[in-house]
Amino acid sequence: MSKIQVMDEVLANKIAAGEVVEKCMNVVKELVENSIDAKATEIEISLIESGIKEIEVRDNGIGMDKEDAVMAFQRHATSKLKKLDDLFYIESLGFRGEALPSIASVSNIKLKTSNGEIGTQVTMSGGKDSKVERCDLEPGTTITVSNLFYNTPVRLKYLKNPYVELSYIVEYMNKMALSYPNIKFTLKNNDKILLKTDGNGDQLKVVYEIYGVDITKKMIPISNENDDYYIHGFISYPEVTKGNRNSITTLVNGRVIKNNELNKCIVDCYHTYIHKDRYPVIILNIDVDPILVDINIHPTKMDIKFSKMDTLKELLIDTITEKLEELTLIPEVSVRDSYSISEVHRQITTKETSDEKQPEQEKYEEIKLDFEVQEEKKREEQAEKEQLKEVLPFEIEEEQKEARIKKMNPIGVVALTYIVAENEDGMFLIDQHAAAERINYEKVLKEMKENHPKVDLLIPIKIELRKDEYILAKERLTLLEKYGFEIEEFGFNTILIRSHPSWIPEERAEDIIRKLVDLIIEKNEFDFDQFIWRMAATTACRMSVMAGDYISREDQEWILENIRYCDNPFTCPHGRPTIITYTKYELEKLFKRQLD
Question: SS3 for 451?
Fold first, then answer.
Protein backbone atom coordinates (compact mmCIF):
# COMPACT_ATOMS: atom_id res chain seq x y z
CA MET A 1 0.00 0.00 0.00
CA SER A 2 1.29 3.47 -0.90
CA LYS A 3 2.62 5.49 2.03
CA ILE A 4 1.97 8.83 0.36
CA GLN A 5 -1.67 9.92 0.39
CA VAL A 6 -3.62 13.07 -0.29
CA MET A 7 -4.53 14.86 2.92
CA ASP A 8 -8.11 14.98 4.11
CA GLU A 9 -9.54 18.43 3.27
CA VAL A 10 -10.33 19.23 6.91
CA LEU A 11 -6.76 18.32 7.93
CA ALA A 12 -5.33 20.47 5.13
CA ASN A 13 -7.46 23.41 6.24
CA LYS A 14 -6.27 23.00 9.84
CA ILE A 15 -2.65 23.11 8.66
CA ALA A 16 -3.42 26.19 6.56
CA ALA A 17 -5.07 27.74 9.61
CA GLY A 18 -1.72 27.51 11.40
CA GLU A 19 -0.28 29.92 8.83
CA VAL A 20 -3.25 32.25 8.46
CA VAL A 21 -4.80 32.22 11.97
CA GLU A 22 -2.33 32.57 14.84
CA LYS A 23 -4.40 34.73 17.15
CA CYS A 24 -7.80 36.40 17.39
CA MET A 25 -6.50 39.44 15.54
CA ASN A 26 -5.91 37.32 12.41
CA VAL A 27 -9.57 36.32 12.35
CA VAL A 28 -10.68 39.94 12.68
CA LYS A 29 -8.19 40.97 9.98
CA GLU A 30 -9.37 38.43 7.41
CA LEU A 31 -13.08 39.08 8.01
CA VAL A 32 -12.72 42.88 7.97
CA GLU A 33 -10.69 42.74 4.75
CA ASN A 34 -13.43 40.64 3.16
CA SER A 35 -15.99 43.25 4.21
CA ILE A 36 -13.93 46.03 2.64
CA ASP A 37 -13.56 44.03 -0.58
CA ALA A 38 -17.37 43.67 -0.52
CA LYS A 39 -17.61 47.49 -0.78
CA ALA A 40 -18.94 47.97 2.76
CA THR A 41 -19.25 51.51 4.09
CA GLU A 42 -20.10 50.43 7.65
CA ILE A 43 -18.31 47.62 9.51
CA GLU A 44 -19.03 46.62 13.10
CA ILE A 45 -16.78 44.23 15.03
CA SER A 46 -18.24 42.80 18.23
CA LEU A 47 -16.05 40.69 20.54
CA ILE A 48 -16.79 38.59 23.58
CA GLU A 49 -13.85 38.07 25.93
CA SER A 50 -11.44 39.71 23.47
CA GLY A 51 -12.58 37.42 20.67
CA ILE A 52 -11.54 34.19 22.39
CA LYS A 53 -15.18 33.28 22.98
CA GLU A 54 -16.78 35.03 19.99
CA ILE A 55 -15.99 37.37 17.10
CA GLU A 56 -18.77 38.88 15.03
CA VAL A 57 -18.12 41.07 11.98
CA ARG A 58 -21.14 42.75 10.42
CA ASP A 59 -21.07 44.85 7.24
CA ASN A 60 -23.44 46.50 4.78
CA GLY A 61 -21.57 45.29 1.67
CA ILE A 62 -22.91 43.72 -1.50
CA GLY A 63 -23.55 40.34 0.12
CA MET A 64 -23.68 36.94 -1.61
CA ASP A 65 -26.20 34.61 -3.15
CA LYS A 66 -26.69 31.05 -1.92
CA GLU A 67 -24.19 29.47 -4.31
CA ASP A 68 -21.40 31.89 -3.43
CA ALA A 69 -22.12 31.61 0.31
CA VAL A 70 -21.57 27.86 0.18
CA MET A 71 -18.60 28.08 -2.20
CA ALA A 72 -16.86 30.63 0.06
CA PHE A 73 -15.94 27.81 2.47
CA GLN A 74 -14.16 25.79 -0.23
CA ARG A 75 -10.38 26.08 -0.14
CA HIS A 76 -8.88 28.36 -2.81
CA ALA A 77 -12.35 29.58 -3.80
CA THR A 78 -12.12 33.32 -4.56
CA SER A 79 -13.89 35.98 -6.60
CA LYS A 80 -10.78 38.14 -6.86
CA LEU A 81 -8.49 36.15 -9.17
CA LYS A 82 -9.66 34.72 -12.48
CA LYS A 83 -6.40 34.09 -14.33
CA LEU A 84 -2.65 34.04 -13.74
CA ASP A 85 -2.11 37.64 -14.87
CA ASP A 86 -4.44 38.85 -12.10
CA LEU A 87 -1.84 37.75 -9.55
CA PHE A 88 0.48 40.53 -10.74
CA TYR A 89 -2.15 43.27 -10.49
CA ILE A 90 -3.91 42.73 -7.17
CA GLU A 91 -6.18 45.57 -6.05
CA SER A 92 -8.26 43.67 -3.47
CA LEU A 93 -7.16 42.98 0.12
CA GLY A 94 -7.89 39.26 -0.06
CA PHE A 95 -7.28 36.96 -3.01
CA ARG A 96 -6.08 33.48 -1.96
CA GLY A 97 -9.37 32.00 -0.83
CA GLU A 98 -7.76 30.38 2.23
CA ALA A 99 -8.94 32.51 5.14
CA LEU A 100 -12.59 31.49 5.50
CA PRO A 101 -12.09 27.68 5.23
CA SER A 102 -9.05 27.94 7.54
CA ILE A 103 -11.05 29.86 10.18
CA ALA A 104 -14.00 27.48 9.82
CA SER A 105 -11.74 24.45 10.41
CA VAL A 106 -10.75 25.63 13.92
CA SER A 107 -14.00 27.16 15.17
CA ASN A 108 -17.76 27.18 15.05
CA ILE A 109 -18.81 29.61 12.35
CA LYS A 110 -22.06 31.09 11.10
CA LEU A 111 -22.34 33.15 7.92
CA LYS A 112 -25.46 35.17 7.29
CA THR A 113 -25.63 37.09 4.01
CA SER A 114 -27.99 38.72 1.55
CA ASN A 115 -27.53 40.34 -1.84
CA GLY A 116 -30.97 41.94 -1.64
CA GLU A 117 -32.70 39.13 -3.54
CA ILE A 118 -32.12 36.11 -1.33
CA GLY A 119 -30.90 35.58 2.23
CA THR A 120 -28.64 32.64 3.05
CA GLN A 121 -27.31 31.29 6.33
CA VAL A 122 -24.46 28.75 6.49
CA THR A 123 -23.31 27.17 9.75
CA MET A 124 -20.32 24.87 10.24
CA SER A 125 -18.49 23.23 13.13
CA GLY A 126 -14.82 22.44 12.80
CA GLY A 127 -14.95 22.84 9.03
CA LYS A 128 -17.64 20.17 8.50
CA ASP A 129 -21.32 19.42 9.12
CA SER A 130 -22.31 22.31 6.88
CA LYS A 131 -25.93 23.44 7.24
CA VAL A 132 -27.50 25.79 4.67
CA GLU A 133 -30.85 27.50 5.16
CA ARG A 134 -32.80 30.62 4.20
CA CYS A 135 -32.72 33.78 6.32
CA ASP A 136 -33.94 37.38 6.22
CA LEU A 137 -32.86 39.94 3.61
CA GLU A 138 -30.81 42.23 5.84
CA PRO A 139 -28.27 43.87 3.49
CA GLY A 140 -24.65 42.78 3.72
CA THR A 141 -22.91 39.94 5.52
CA THR A 142 -22.54 38.94 9.15
CA ILE A 143 -19.97 36.31 10.15
CA THR A 144 -19.87 34.96 13.69
CA VAL A 145 -16.84 32.93 14.81
CA SER A 146 -17.15 31.29 18.23
CA ASN A 147 -14.99 28.97 20.34
CA LEU A 148 -11.85 29.63 18.34
CA PHE A 149 -9.35 26.71 18.43
CA TYR A 150 -11.80 24.55 20.40
CA ASN A 151 -10.68 21.50 18.36
CA THR A 152 -6.96 22.36 18.42
CA PRO A 153 -6.23 22.54 22.17
CA VAL A 154 -2.49 23.06 21.66
CA ARG A 155 -3.13 26.23 19.68
CA LEU A 156 -5.77 27.36 22.21
CA LYS A 157 -3.28 26.92 25.05
CA TYR A 158 -0.85 29.32 23.41
CA LEU A 159 -3.31 32.15 22.94
CA LYS A 160 -2.21 35.15 24.97
CA ASN A 161 -4.28 36.42 27.88
CA PRO A 162 -7.44 38.35 26.88
CA TYR A 163 -5.85 41.76 27.40
CA VAL A 164 -2.96 40.98 25.04
CA GLU A 165 -5.28 39.50 22.42
CA LEU A 166 -7.50 42.57 22.65
CA SER A 167 -4.52 44.91 22.29
CA TYR A 168 -3.56 43.19 19.00
CA ILE A 169 -7.08 43.65 17.66
CA VAL A 170 -7.34 47.30 18.73
CA GLU A 171 -3.94 48.07 17.20
CA TYR A 172 -4.94 46.49 13.90
CA MET A 173 -8.34 48.17 13.78
CA ASN A 174 -6.73 51.55 14.49
CA LYS A 175 -4.55 51.06 11.43
CA MET A 176 -7.52 49.96 9.30
CA ALA A 177 -9.48 53.03 10.38
CA LEU A 178 -6.54 55.20 9.31
CA SER A 179 -6.33 53.33 6.03
CA TYR A 180 -10.04 53.68 5.24
CA PRO A 181 -11.30 56.93 6.79
CA ASN A 182 -14.30 56.75 4.41
CA ILE A 183 -15.59 53.62 6.19
CA LYS A 184 -17.49 53.82 9.45
CA PHE A 185 -15.81 51.39 11.88
CA THR A 186 -17.15 50.32 15.26
CA LEU A 187 -15.19 48.00 17.54
CA LYS A 188 -16.76 46.65 20.72
CA ASN A 189 -15.59 44.22 23.37
CA ASN A 190 -18.18 42.90 25.82
CA ASP A 191 -20.50 45.70 24.57
CA LYS A 192 -17.96 48.41 25.44
CA ILE A 193 -17.02 50.64 22.49
CA LEU A 194 -13.26 50.79 21.91
CA LEU A 195 -13.21 52.52 18.52
CA LYS A 196 -15.84 54.46 16.63
CA THR A 197 -15.22 56.51 13.48
CA ASP A 198 -17.77 58.47 11.48
CA GLY A 199 -16.52 57.45 8.01
CA ASN A 200 -16.47 61.01 6.64
CA GLY A 201 -13.15 60.46 4.83
CA ASP A 202 -11.11 62.80 7.06
CA GLN A 203 -7.92 60.94 8.05
CA LEU A 204 -6.91 63.65 10.51
CA LYS A 205 -10.19 63.09 12.37
CA VAL A 206 -9.31 59.40 12.68
CA VAL A 207 -5.86 60.36 14.02
CA TYR A 208 -7.67 62.48 16.61
CA GLU A 209 -10.02 59.62 17.57
CA ILE A 210 -7.08 57.22 18.04
CA TYR A 211 -4.32 59.35 19.53
CA GLY A 212 -6.22 62.18 21.20
CA VAL A 213 -5.80 65.93 21.13
CA ASP A 214 -2.22 66.26 22.41
CA ILE A 215 -0.60 64.07 19.76
CA THR A 216 -2.88 65.27 16.96
CA LYS A 217 -1.74 68.85 17.60
CA LYS A 218 1.84 67.65 17.11
CA MET A 219 1.27 65.94 13.76
CA ILE A 220 2.60 67.42 10.53
CA PRO A 221 0.90 66.79 7.15
CA ILE A 222 3.17 65.61 4.33
CA SER A 223 2.58 65.04 0.63
CA ASN A 224 4.92 64.38 -2.30
CA GLU A 225 5.24 62.24 -5.41
CA ASN A 226 7.58 61.06 -8.13
CA ASP A 227 7.07 59.06 -11.31
CA ASP A 228 6.31 55.84 -9.41
CA TYR A 229 4.90 56.74 -5.99
CA TYR A 230 2.58 59.21 -4.33
CA ILE A 231 3.01 59.51 -0.55
CA HIS A 232 0.85 61.45 1.88
CA GLY A 233 -0.10 61.36 5.53
CA PHE A 234 1.22 62.70 8.82
CA ILE A 235 4.49 62.66 10.73
CA SER A 236 4.97 63.67 14.35
CA TYR A 237 7.14 66.36 15.84
CA PRO A 238 10.34 64.78 17.24
CA GLU A 239 9.14 65.45 20.79
CA VAL A 240 6.29 62.92 20.21
CA THR A 241 7.79 59.44 20.34
CA LYS A 242 6.84 55.91 21.33
CA GLY A 243 8.84 53.00 22.67
CA ASN A 244 8.31 50.65 19.71
CA ARG A 245 7.78 50.61 15.94
CA ASN A 246 4.04 49.95 16.31
CA SER A 247 3.61 53.72 16.19
CA ILE A 248 4.58 53.61 12.50
CA THR A 249 1.52 52.90 10.36
CA THR A 250 2.34 52.16 6.73
CA LEU A 251 -0.47 51.78 4.21
CA VAL A 252 0.12 50.69 0.62
CA ASN A 253 -2.91 51.13 -1.63
CA GLY A 254 -5.04 50.88 1.50
CA ARG A 255 -3.34 47.72 2.77
CA VAL A 256 -1.76 47.71 6.25
CA ILE A 257 1.80 46.41 5.89
CA LYS A 258 4.95 45.91 7.92
CA ASN A 259 8.19 46.34 6.03
CA ASN A 260 11.40 46.55 8.07
CA GLU A 261 13.39 48.26 5.33
CA LEU A 262 10.74 50.96 4.98
CA ASN A 263 10.48 51.42 8.75
CA LYS A 264 14.25 51.80 9.03
CA CYS A 265 14.21 54.43 6.29
CA ILE A 266 11.53 56.41 8.14
CA VAL A 267 13.33 56.20 11.50
CA ASP A 268 16.61 57.23 9.86
CA CYS A 269 14.93 60.45 8.71
CA TYR A 270 14.62 61.34 12.42
CA HIS A 271 18.30 60.62 12.96
CA THR A 272 19.68 62.97 15.67
CA TYR A 273 16.16 64.37 16.22
CA ILE A 274 15.09 61.59 18.59
CA HIS A 275 16.82 59.08 20.86
CA LYS A 276 17.92 55.87 19.13
CA ASP A 277 15.51 53.73 21.21
CA ARG A 278 12.46 55.90 20.47
CA TYR A 279 10.21 55.98 17.40
CA PRO A 280 8.06 58.72 15.85
CA VAL A 281 4.31 58.48 15.26
CA ILE A 282 3.85 58.09 11.51
CA ILE A 283 0.78 57.59 9.31
CA LEU A 284 2.14 57.02 5.82
CA ASN A 285 -0.07 56.36 2.80
CA ILE A 286 1.71 55.04 -0.29
CA ASP A 287 -0.22 54.96 -3.56
CA VAL A 288 1.46 52.94 -6.29
CA ASP A 289 0.60 50.99 -9.42
CA PRO A 290 -0.16 47.42 -8.16
CA ILE A 291 2.19 46.01 -10.77
CA LEU A 292 5.16 47.56 -8.89
CA VAL A 293 4.49 45.67 -5.64
CA ASP A 294 4.30 42.01 -4.69
CA ILE A 295 2.02 41.17 -1.78
CA ASN A 296 2.05 37.43 -2.35
CA ILE A 297 5.10 36.68 -0.19
CA HIS A 298 3.55 35.81 3.18
CA PRO A 299 0.32 34.04 4.19
CA THR A 300 -0.85 36.99 6.30
CA LYS A 301 -0.16 39.45 3.42
CA MET A 302 1.37 41.88 5.93
CA ASP A 303 4.76 42.08 4.22
CA ILE A 304 5.31 43.44 0.74
CA LYS A 305 8.04 43.76 -1.89
CA PHE A 306 8.60 46.96 -3.87
CA SER A 307 9.99 46.83 -7.40
CA LYS A 308 11.54 50.29 -7.10
CA MET A 309 12.41 50.55 -3.43
CA ASP A 310 15.30 52.98 -4.03
CA THR A 311 13.04 55.61 -5.60
CA LEU A 312 10.52 55.20 -2.76
CA LYS A 313 13.20 55.59 -0.08
CA GLU A 314 14.60 58.65 -1.83
CA LEU A 315 11.14 60.20 -1.96
CA LEU A 316 10.53 59.46 1.73
CA ILE A 317 13.88 60.81 2.88
CA ASP A 318 13.57 64.01 0.85
CA THR A 319 9.98 64.64 2.00
CA ILE A 320 10.39 63.96 5.73
CA THR A 321 13.82 65.59 6.02
CA GLU A 322 12.68 68.74 4.24
CA LYS A 323 9.58 68.97 6.43
CA LEU A 324 11.57 68.59 9.67
CA GLU A 325 14.14 71.16 8.58
CA GLU A 326 11.54 73.87 7.98
CA LEU A 327 9.91 73.54 11.42
CA THR A 328 10.68 75.23 14.72
CA LEU A 329 10.94 72.27 17.04
CA ILE A 330 11.34 73.85 20.47
CA PRO A 331 9.04 72.01 22.90
CA GLU A 332 6.73 74.28 24.86
CA VAL A 333 6.11 73.64 28.53
CA SER A 334 2.35 73.42 29.05
CA VAL A 335 0.81 74.53 32.31
CA ARG A 336 -1.88 72.30 33.77
CA ASP A 337 -4.33 73.97 36.09
CA SER A 338 -7.22 72.41 37.96
CA TYR A 339 -9.52 72.92 34.98
CA SER A 340 -7.29 71.09 32.52
CA ILE A 341 -6.75 68.18 34.90
CA SER A 342 -10.49 67.75 35.43
CA GLU A 343 -11.03 68.02 31.69
CA VAL A 344 -8.55 65.19 31.03
CA HIS A 345 -10.23 63.09 33.71
CA ARG A 346 -13.62 63.72 32.13
CA GLN A 347 -12.36 62.63 28.71
CA ILE A 348 -11.02 59.37 30.14
CA THR A 349 -14.01 58.42 32.25
CA THR A 350 -16.91 59.35 30.01
CA LYS A 351 -17.93 60.40 26.53
CA GLU A 352 -21.00 62.59 26.65
CA THR A 353 -23.58 62.31 23.88
CA SER A 354 -25.57 65.32 22.79
CA ASP A 355 -26.94 66.99 19.67
CA GLU A 356 -24.74 69.99 20.44
CA LYS A 357 -21.02 70.13 19.66
CA GLN A 358 -18.91 68.42 22.32
CA PRO A 359 -15.63 69.85 23.63
CA GLU A 360 -13.75 67.04 21.82
CA GLN A 361 -15.28 68.03 18.48
CA GLU A 362 -14.52 71.70 19.10
CA LYS A 363 -10.90 70.86 19.92
CA TYR A 364 -10.60 68.80 16.76
CA GLU A 365 -12.02 71.62 14.65
CA GLU A 366 -9.46 74.00 16.19
CA ILE A 367 -6.68 71.59 15.21
CA LYS A 368 -8.12 71.23 11.71
CA LEU A 369 -8.32 75.00 11.31
CA ASP A 370 -4.71 75.37 12.45
CA PHE A 371 -3.60 72.82 9.85
CA GLU A 372 -5.48 74.70 7.14
CA VAL A 373 -4.03 78.07 8.20
CA GLN A 374 -0.48 76.70 8.15
CA GLU A 375 -0.96 75.12 4.73
CA GLU A 376 -2.44 78.33 3.33
CA LYS A 377 0.51 80.30 4.72
CA LYS A 378 2.97 77.95 3.01
CA ARG A 379 1.10 78.25 -0.30
CA GLU A 380 1.22 82.05 -0.08
CA GLU A 381 4.95 82.04 0.68
CA GLN A 382 5.60 79.72 -2.27
CA ALA A 383 3.49 81.90 -4.55
CA GLU A 384 5.47 84.98 -3.50
CA LYS A 385 8.74 83.21 -4.31
CA GLU A 386 7.49 82.13 -7.74
CA GLN A 387 6.22 85.65 -8.46
CA LEU A 388 9.58 87.12 -7.45
CA LYS A 389 11.38 84.78 -9.83
CA GLU A 390 9.18 85.95 -12.70
CA VAL A 391 9.73 89.65 -11.95
CA LEU A 392 13.52 89.62 -11.44
CA PRO A 393 15.54 89.30 -14.68
CA PHE A 394 18.49 87.79 -12.79
CA GLU A 395 19.07 84.93 -10.41
CA ILE A 396 19.10 85.72 -6.72
CA GLU A 397 22.45 84.95 -5.14
CA GLU A 398 22.44 82.39 -2.35
CA GLU A 399 21.66 84.19 0.87
CA GLN A 400 23.71 83.93 4.00
CA LYS A 401 22.54 81.12 6.26
CA GLU A 402 19.53 82.22 8.26
CA ALA A 403 19.12 81.63 11.98
CA ARG A 404 16.60 78.91 12.90
CA ILE A 405 15.92 80.55 16.30
CA LYS A 406 15.45 84.16 17.33
CA LYS A 407 18.27 85.82 19.24
CA MET A 408 18.18 85.01 22.98
CA ASN A 409 19.76 86.96 25.82
CA PRO A 410 21.36 84.95 28.66
CA ILE A 411 20.14 85.61 32.19
CA GLY A 412 22.13 83.00 34.13
CA VAL A 413 22.70 79.27 34.69
CA VAL A 414 20.64 76.92 36.87
CA ALA A 415 22.23 73.85 38.52
CA LEU A 416 25.44 74.39 36.51
CA THR A 417 23.62 72.80 33.57
CA TYR A 418 20.76 74.88 32.18
CA ILE A 419 21.23 78.34 30.67
CA VAL A 420 18.27 80.63 31.34
CA ALA A 421 17.60 83.03 28.45
CA GLU A 422 14.83 85.28 27.18
CA ASN A 423 13.54 87.19 24.18
CA GLU A 424 10.23 88.79 23.24
CA ASP A 425 8.57 85.36 22.88
CA GLY A 426 9.23 84.16 26.42
CA MET A 427 11.75 82.33 28.57
CA PHE A 428 14.08 79.54 27.41
CA LEU A 429 16.03 76.81 29.19
CA ILE A 430 19.02 75.52 27.24
CA ASP A 431 20.97 72.38 28.18
CA GLN A 432 24.55 73.66 27.97
CA HIS A 433 26.04 70.25 27.13
CA ALA A 434 23.38 69.23 24.60
CA ALA A 435 23.57 72.60 22.84
CA ALA A 436 27.37 72.65 22.72
CA GLU A 437 27.33 69.04 21.54
CA ARG A 438 25.00 69.93 18.65
CA ILE A 439 27.21 72.89 17.64
CA ASN A 440 30.38 70.80 17.72
CA TYR A 441 28.69 67.85 15.99
CA GLU A 442 27.73 69.89 12.95
CA LYS A 443 31.17 71.51 12.94
CA VAL A 444 32.90 68.11 13.00
CA LEU A 445 30.66 66.69 10.27
CA LYS A 446 31.47 69.64 8.05
CA GLU A 447 35.19 69.42 8.69
CA MET A 448 35.22 65.66 8.11
CA LYS A 449 34.15 66.33 4.52
CA GLU A 450 37.10 68.64 3.97
CA ASN A 451 40.80 67.82 3.76
CA HIS A 452 42.33 69.07 6.99
CA PRO A 453 45.99 68.77 7.94
CA LYS A 454 47.09 66.03 10.31
CA VAL A 455 48.42 66.67 13.78
CA ASP A 456 51.48 64.48 14.54
CA LEU A 457 51.65 63.11 18.05
CA LEU A 458 54.95 63.45 19.92
CA ILE A 459 54.09 60.28 21.80
CA PRO A 460 51.95 57.86 19.74
CA ILE A 461 48.84 56.46 21.38
CA LYS A 462 49.27 52.74 22.00
CA ILE A 463 46.11 50.62 22.10
CA GLU A 464 46.19 46.90 22.99
CA LEU A 465 43.30 44.70 21.86
CA ARG A 466 42.12 41.14 22.30
CA LYS A 467 42.67 38.81 19.34
CA ASP A 468 39.02 38.92 18.24
CA GLU A 469 39.00 42.71 18.55
CA TYR A 470 42.26 43.00 16.63
CA ILE A 471 40.82 41.00 13.73
CA LEU A 472 37.87 43.40 13.43
CA ALA A 473 40.13 46.41 13.85
CA LYS A 474 42.46 45.35 10.99
CA GLU A 475 39.45 45.11 8.67
CA ARG A 476 37.94 48.48 9.61
CA LEU A 477 40.83 50.77 10.53
CA THR A 478 40.98 52.01 6.93
CA LEU A 479 37.80 53.94 7.76
CA LEU A 480 39.73 56.00 10.30
CA GLU A 481 42.65 56.43 7.92
CA LYS A 482 40.26 57.81 5.32
CA TYR A 483 39.40 60.65 7.72
CA GLY A 484 42.94 61.69 8.55
CA PHE A 485 44.28 59.18 11.11
CA GLU A 486 47.70 57.59 10.68
CA ILE A 487 47.67 54.09 12.17
CA GLU A 488 50.17 51.22 12.14
CA GLU A 489 50.34 47.73 13.56
CA PHE A 490 52.73 47.36 16.49
CA GLY A 491 53.60 43.92 17.65
CA PHE A 492 51.02 41.35 18.73
CA ASN A 493 47.42 42.63 18.87
CA THR A 494 48.50 46.25 19.26
CA ILE A 495 48.06 49.38 17.15
CA LEU A 496 49.75 52.76 17.29
CA ILE A 497 48.01 56.05 16.48
CA ARG A 498 50.72 58.40 15.18
CA SER A 499 48.57 61.32 13.99
CA HIS A 500 44.99 62.50 13.94
CA PRO A 501 42.98 65.09 11.98
CA SER A 502 43.11 68.68 13.17
CA TRP A 503 39.42 68.80 14.04
CA ILE A 504 40.09 66.68 17.13
CA PRO A 505 41.22 68.95 20.00
CA GLU A 506 44.70 67.94 21.17
CA GLU A 507 43.86 68.11 24.88
CA ARG A 508 41.22 65.39 24.47
CA ALA A 509 42.72 63.46 21.57
CA GLU A 510 43.53 60.22 23.42
CA ASP A 511 40.10 59.96 25.04
CA ILE A 512 38.33 60.54 21.71
CA ILE A 513 40.56 58.18 19.72
CA ARG A 514 40.15 55.33 22.20
CA LYS A 515 36.39 55.77 22.02
CA LEU A 516 36.50 55.69 18.20
CA VAL A 517 38.49 52.44 18.26
CA ASP A 518 35.82 50.99 20.59
CA LEU A 519 33.24 51.84 17.93
CA ILE A 520 35.32 50.13 15.24
CA ILE A 521 35.59 46.82 17.09
CA GLU A 522 31.90 46.39 17.99
CA LYS A 523 30.74 42.96 16.87
CA ASN A 524 27.23 43.92 15.78
CA GLU A 525 26.37 44.38 12.11
CA PHE A 526 28.55 47.21 10.82
CA ASP A 527 26.81 50.15 9.18
CA PHE A 528 29.15 52.68 7.56
CA ASP A 529 26.69 55.61 7.71
CA GLN A 530 25.96 54.88 11.37
CA PHE A 531 29.69 54.73 12.10
CA ILE A 532 30.28 58.19 10.56
CA TRP A 533 27.45 59.60 12.68
CA ARG A 534 28.74 57.94 15.84
CA MET A 535 32.30 59.08 15.15
CA ALA A 536 31.15 62.69 14.77
CA ALA A 537 28.78 62.45 17.77
CA THR A 538 31.44 60.88 19.99
CA THR A 539 34.02 63.51 19.04
CA ALA A 540 31.49 66.30 19.63
CA CYS A 541 30.50 64.89 23.02
CA ARG A 542 34.08 64.65 24.23
CA MET A 543 34.98 68.20 23.15
CA SER A 544 31.86 69.89 24.61
CA VAL A 545 31.28 71.50 27.96
CA MET A 546 29.63 69.02 30.33
CA ALA A 547 26.68 69.32 32.67
CA GLY A 548 28.01 70.59 36.00
CA ASP A 549 30.84 72.59 34.42
CA TYR A 550 31.00 76.29 35.19
CA ILE A 551 30.66 78.49 32.10
CA SER A 552 31.16 82.25 31.93
CA ARG A 553 28.72 84.72 30.44
CA GLU A 554 30.86 84.82 27.30
CA ASP A 555 30.52 81.03 27.01
CA GLN A 556 26.75 81.33 27.45
CA GLU A 557 26.55 83.95 24.71
CA TRP A 558 28.72 81.78 22.42
CA ILE A 559 26.40 78.78 22.87
CA LEU A 560 23.21 80.82 22.42
CA GLU A 561 24.50 82.53 19.30
CA ASN A 562 25.93 79.45 17.58
CA ILE A 563 22.99 77.16 18.31
CA ARG A 564 20.77 79.54 16.34
CA TYR A 565 22.57 78.77 13.08
CA CYS A 566 22.71 74.97 13.38
CA ASP A 567 20.88 72.92 10.78
CA ASN A 568 19.01 71.24 13.63
CA PRO A 569 19.33 73.38 16.76
CA PHE A 570 16.56 71.58 18.62
CA THR A 571 18.22 68.29 19.63
CA CYS A 572 21.69 66.99 20.38
CA PRO A 573 23.16 64.29 18.08
CA HIS A 574 21.64 61.61 20.30
CA GLY A 575 18.12 63.01 20.06
CA ARG A 576 17.81 64.75 23.44
CA PRO A 577 16.27 68.25 23.38
CA THR A 578 18.67 71.17 23.56
CA ILE A 579 16.09 73.81 24.39
CA ILE A 580 12.59 74.17 25.82
CA THR A 581 10.49 77.30 26.20
CA TYR A 582 7.96 78.83 28.51
CA THR A 583 5.93 81.17 26.34
CA LYS A 584 4.91 84.51 27.75
CA TYR A 585 1.30 83.26 27.82
CA GLU A 586 2.24 80.17 29.85
CA LEU A 587 4.24 82.27 32.31
CA GLU A 588 1.28 84.58 32.81
CA LYS A 589 -0.95 81.55 33.43
CA LEU A 590 1.46 80.33 36.10
CA PHE A 591 1.22 83.65 37.91
CA LYS A 592 -2.55 83.91 37.33
CA ARG A 593 -2.20 86.98 35.11
CA GLN A 594 -4.09 84.98 32.48
CA LEU A 595 -7.25 83.13 33.45
CA ASP A 596 -9.10 80.80 31.05
Answer: coil
